[in-house]
Amino acid sequence: MRRVIRRVIVRRIIRKIIVKRPIRRIIIKRIIRRPIRKVVRKIIVKRPIKRIIVRRVIVRKKIIIKRVAFPRLPRVKIMYDETYDEAIHQLVEKRHTHMAHMGGQLFARRLRKATKPMLKRFLVTAENVTGLKWRWHIVRCYVAHDIPFDFDNPMTIKIRGNMKDATETFFHELAHQMELQNNERIRHRNNLSRKYRNEPKDTREHIFAHAVLWKVYEKLYGRARLKKIIAGYRLWPEHYRGWQIVKKEGADNILKAYLK
Ligand SMILES: [Zn+2]
User: Fold this and answer.
1) How far is the CA of 16 from the centre of ligand 1 (A)?
2) Which of 231-234's residues contact partners 24+ apart within 8 Å by CB, and which partners?
3) Element of type H or E holding 158
C-alpha cells in the first residue's frame, strides 16, 4: 500500500519537475521519504534538465529513472473536447447538441490542416527571434463554440467559418503561449511598458506578443504579407494599437526591453 502511495507521489513530483520549473526543492524534500528522495535528488542534481523528460520505469518494485531526450519542439495538439464545449455552452446559455460535437471535430481537423504547413517553422522561428525556448512539451489547443474571445491558457480557439482568421488567431495565441511559458524570463516592467502604461489593458498586453509575431511573420512571410495581417487587426482597435506601438518602437527594441 505504501509503495503504491509512493509511486503516486513520485509520479506527481516528476510531473512537477517536467512542467513546473524552477522546481520548488523544499516542497519536494518535505513530501518525499528517503529512498525516493535519493532518486529525486538525482534528477535535481542533473539539472539543468535541458529539455529532458524523465521517464519512470518501475521494474521489480524498484524505481528506475531514465533520461530521455526531449523532443526539440513541443507537440501542438489541436483538439475538440465535448465536455469543455458543453460547459462553455452552459455558461453562455446556449443549447448543446450532437451537431455541436460533429462541428467541433470537423473544425479541429480543418484547423490542424490549415496550420500544419506553418506550424513547425513558426515554432522554430519564434525560438530563434526571441532566444526563448518552448518549455512545455505538449501544448493543447482546444476548439470550442461560442466563446466570447480566444485565449492562450488553456489555448482555446473559437470555432468559426473563416479559416484564415482562425489560423491567424491560432498563431497569435501561440505567441502568447511562448510569453506564458517563459514568464520568468520576461521583464514585464520596463522602459517601454512604463511609457505606454496609460494605454488600454488589451494594448499593453499585446506589445510583447506582437513584437514576437512581427519578427516571426517578417521572417516567414515577408513585409508585404505582414502589413496585410496587421491591417486585418483593424477590427480590434486595442490590438491594432499594439501593432502601431511595435511599428513605432521597433520589434527588436521591444524584445530587448522585455527580455531579461
Ligand atoms: Zn492576444
Assistant:
1) 27
2) 232/165, 232/168
3) strand 155-158
Q: Is the peptide bond before 154 cis (omega within 30 degrees of 0)?
A: yes
Residue with cell 521583464: 187
Statement: residue 211 has pLDDT above 70:
yes
pLDDT at 87 over 60: yes
Residue type, 220: L
Bridge partners of 68? 53
Q: The pTM is what?
A: 0.72
**C-alpha cell recorded at residue 23:** 522546481
Supply 191's cell numbers: 522602459
Q: What are residue 58's phi and psi, to 5 degrees?
A: -105, 110
Residue 78 CA to ligand 1 centre (angstroms): 18
Cα-to-centroid distance, 31 and ligand 1 (Å): 38
Question: Would you say residue 112 has pLDDT above 50?
Answer: yes
- How, if at all, do strands 52-59 and 62-69 pair? antiparallel
User: How far does residue 176's CA lie from ligand 1's centre (Å)?
Assistant: 7
Is residue 132 within 8 Å of residue 187, measured between CB atoms?
no
The domains of the chain, with CATH numbers, are 2-69 (no CATH), 75-182 (3.30.2010), 186-258 (no CATH)
What percentage of the chain carries pLDDT values higher than 90?
A: 67
Contact assessment for residue 96 and residue 90, using Cβ atoms and an 8 Å cutoff? yes
> How does strand 62-69 pair with strand 155-158?
unpaired
Ligand 1: distance of its center to the CA of 33 in Å? 44
- CA 207 to ligand 1 center in whole angstroms: 10
Cell numbers for 219, please give them. 521572417
Q: Amino acid letter at 81? A: D
Q: 201: Cβ–Cβ under 8 A, 6 or more apart, which residues?
A: 238
- d(CA 253, ligand 1 centre) in Å: 20
